[in-house]
Design goal:
By secondary structure, this protein is an alpha/beta fold. It has helices at about 5-15, 35-45, 60-65, 75-85, 100-105, 115-125, 145-150, 190-200, 240-250, 270-285, 305-315, and strands at about 1-5, 20, 30-35, 55-60, 90-95, 110, 130, 160, 175-180, 180-185, 205-210, 230-235, 260, 290-295, 315. The structure holds threonylcarbamoyladenylate and magnesium ion (MG).
């Protein structure tokens, strides 16, 4: 593992078949050109990622994006002209020459144009799109700095292109466009509401549904997990009684109850930017668990994405346990 700050060594390494971690505005990715199957295989190996979980293809211009798919519908035109380069991934029917390794055998491909000058320059120079998942071991917290990537893969023979901290901080919104319907497969900071407003400009009515399902195989129930367990506590349970604390300890098989709060910024965009870094910092202080308080005013727009990640990071979610049943823990 080696950290670099310019694209020239990254270009050389990629041509030699090495993996390069790339900065993006969402999180760092672990990249390989879409036409280098051996390198794509390495991504799955070093991440310990199941082969049924498809990768996002990163492009530097619209022609590249269009060259990957069978159609480029109006919805794609509108959304990409509003949000690219930026934290939006669109899923469309793929051309048959796109490797099944990348798409996990699906007939669609996920594409996005990241908003980071170094990565855009890198893709432009290579003249080939880069397939890249987030640069973390499968199931763990995504990296938002080059140092996070280095900690994740200390022994691996990869280069890390340091482009500074990711400014969005949360993975892109993934939206599938199919037969005039849009399905949000993974919520992100580009919310359903803003996409709906833009699409209302089309004469036909477009329906956007939120549905994380089998259609996006990476959406396993637990994901984004830091080293220490995360617990979600509804506001209504505060202050925590000793009894509740003891039950938490028991249900997570902990030996004591040193806990730290993950405080969320009141602005969702600032909150997202520091979320993963804060989870890592809190874990480093070695508490028995980390808790985060659910607030009723954080349930729309970009907050949906933040709470989607927190729900998956959580080992215990007291929102889903009726108060009276805490005894059953
Ligand atoms: O912001 C991001 O999207 C970051 C940066 C690096 O671009 N990437 C990222 O990749 O989060 P990854 O692999 O950690 O998550 C990609 C998600 C997975 O849940 C995967 O299942 C879904 O996108 N996906 C990829 N291709 C798909 C397809 N053809 N159909 C449905 N879902 C797909
Ligand atoms: Mg990921």
């Amino acid at each position: 593992m080696k950290i670099i700050r310019t694209i020239e060594p990254a270009i050389r390494a990629i041509k030699q078949g090495k993996l390069v971690a790339i900065p993006t505005e969402t999180v760092y990715g672990l990249a390989a050109p879409i036409d280098q199957e051996a390198s794509i295989r390495k991504i799955f190996e070093i991440k310990n990622r199941p082969s049924f979980d498809p990768l996002i293809v990163h492009v530097s211009d619209l022609d590249q994006a269009r060259s990957l798919v069978l159609e480029w519908p109006d919805e794609a035109k509108i959304l990409t002209s509003a949000f690219w380069p930026g934290p939006l991934t669109i899923v469309l029917p793929k051309k048959s020459n796109i490797s099944d390794l990348i798409t996990a055998g699906l007939s669609s491909v996920a594409i996005r144009m990241p908003r980071h000058p170094l990565t855009l320059e890198l893709i432009e120079n290579l003249k080939t799109p880069l397939a890249a998942p987030s640069a973390n071991i499968f199931g763990k917290v995504s990296p938002t700095t080059a140092d996070h990537v280095a900690l994740e893969f200390p022994e691996s023979d990869i280069l890390i292109l340091d482009g500074g901290p990711s400014e969005v901080g949360l993975e892109s919104t993934v939206v599938e466009i199919k037969s005039g319907k849009l399905r949000i497969l993974r919520p992100g900071m580009i919310s359903k509401e803003v996409m709906q407003i833009l699409l209302n400009g089309l004469s036909r009515k477009i329906e956007i549904i939120e549905e994380e399902s089998q259609a996006s195989p990476g959406h396993t129930k637990s994901h984004y997990q830091p080293e220490k367990p995360v617990i979600i506590i509804p506001e209504t349970l505060l202050p925590l009684s000793t009894e509740t604390k003891n039950k938490i300890i028991k249900s997570l098989h902990l030996s004591s109850s040193k806990s730290l709060e993950l405080a969320l910024d009141h602005d969702p965009f600032l909150c997202a930017r520091s979320l993963y870094g804060n989870l890592r910092k809190l874990s480093d202080q070695k508490p028995d668990y980390i808790y985060v308080i659910e607030r009723k005013d954080q349930q729309t727009g970009p907050w949906i994405a933040i709470w989607n990640r927190l729900s998956k990071a959580a080992s215990l979610d007291l929102r889903s346990i009726p108060m009276g049943s805490l005894n059953a823990l």
